Amino acid sequence: MATRDVEAGLLAHLSTNAEIADSRSFASSLGVPHKELEDVIKSLAAFRIVQSADITKETWVLTDEARGYAARGSPEVQLVAAIPPEGASKAALKEKLGDVVFDIGMKAAARNKWIGFQKGNKDLVLRMVEDTKDELQEQLRRLENGEGVANKVIDDLKKRKLVTKEKTIWYSLKKGPEFVLKRKTLATDVTREHLKSGDWKDLEFKDYNYGALGQPIPTGYVNPLLEVRESIQNIFIEMGFIEMPTNMFVESSFWNFDALFQPQQHPARDSHDTFFLKAPSTTTQLPNDYLEKVKQIHQSGGYGSKGYGYDWKRDEAEKNLLRTHTTAVSARMLYKIAQEKPFAPKRYYSIDRVFRNEAVDRTHLAEFHQIEGLICDYGLTLGDLKGVLEDFFSRLGMSQLRFKPAYNPYTEPSMEIFSYHDGLKKWVEIGNSGMFRPEMLLPMGLPEGVNVIAWGLSLERPTMILYGIDNIRDLFGPKVDFNLIKSSPMCRLGM
Ligand code: FB9
After folding, report:
1. Which protein residue's CA is at the shortest distance from atom 34 of ligand 1?
2. Of 19, 197, 226, 291, whose Cβ has the fewest other Cβ atoms within 10 Å?
3. Does 401 map to a domain?
4. What is the largest CA-CA distance in the chain?
5. What spacing in Å lies between the alpha carbon of 442 and ligand 1's midpoint?
6. Among 461, 466, 491, which is best to mutate for testing ligand 1, by the most ligand atoms less than 8 A from CB?
7. Are residues 472 and 362 in the same domain?
8. Does the predicted model carry a pTM greater than 0.70?
9. pLDDT tens digits, residue range 114-156?
10. CB of 388 shorter than 6 A to ligand 1
11. Contact, 417 vs 455, CB < 8 A?
């Protein structure tokens, strides 16, 4: 039945009757679902054409499992009915009844002493009674028919999760102060037809709804990771940093580890932590002069360092891998700066994907986006590093930093960075930092006295905290939750 017919039926009934006591029975008298009548009631009530009073009732409804027992009998009755005179094995009964009915039926039938077992053979189930009274089925059918049952019965059924409470709403109706037999359709526009027919003279217009939201615009939506990445890029640019080229995910072990003075037997260089490539498994494009200096510093030291004292292997350095940190790009950029004469100070940053062969969980994947900043200049100190970290993180809205001594193979000293998070009410580790070691910088050819301060953090951690996301798969990867992307508010970092 069309909505206007439901409306006409309702108004006609109210024009000759004082009230409609129960909208559910009225809906069935019209032969329409109660929901359809409910929509008409709400529309008429909004214009005070009818007055409606809510009638809410909480009723117990059967679960799917319970409806099965109401139809086919309780599990215990089904079990007994399935046992032939000679008895049956448990496996045969489980096969016939299914796990749920078998397990529940066995317990209840044994409790009622309706079944027994053959002496010496616990697997053969015997029927011990002729008739079984199915109280459960009777109770469920009474509920299904809307008949009352005792509270104790309800409590038992709730314990067995066979009933759930459902709130149903219906209405009693009377004429409203603006009651009419036929509602005037309020115009929203003056049309050509109105003008031609002269109807425009009698038009009543619908009030403007200034609170109405605009039509949602079917546009694209930016992933929160990219929102936060852009915000952080802007912070680096405001601070005078230039972006490093991070478009090479595949890197040599040389640039990812050796150039950073990370020894070849370091655990991070094991395939348990790093993704090595099968093909091409190695690279031959390495700067030989520089490579010899790196070999030297690892084996026997130099520039005041005693090195590691092991036989450095070129084939280890030639192994290709998925970069484990963007610090590999920082190494390439610092080597490039060292070739440029005269030396000029630089501020570089990078934000891009890095890959680690680690256990994945709700907050970790085998890859993440690393954010890294570095400043290369004469005479930089740890104080400069602390200062630039205070500036950088305050622009992210994080002040009150604390620094904890740490270890990185390529920086000395190194510091973990912590900030007090007001929302989480605790100190949160927000990154790592340090001063690149001379064993890394001097073989590159950077002038004596030039230091490099650097720091790093991830993109996922701040994004998940800022957006209140607890599963990284909602943010990154094939199972991204598009509704979360569409509904996420704009992220605003900052001062
Ligand atoms: O991002 C991290 N934490 C973080 C950052 C911001 C943030 O903002 C919130 C809004 C308030 C919240 C948290 N961390 C670094 C710290 C931890 O999460 C840590 O458990 C996980 N770390 C990653 C590495 O884990 C395998 C985050 C990632 C990380 C760690 C170190 C570096 C980069 C990324 C680095 C470096 C570095 C050091 C010296 C020189 C050059 C680079």
Report:
1. 457
2. 197
3. yes
4. 106
5. 27
6. 461
7. yes
8. no
9. 999 988 888 999 999 988 889 999 999 998 887 888 889 999 9
10. no
11. yes
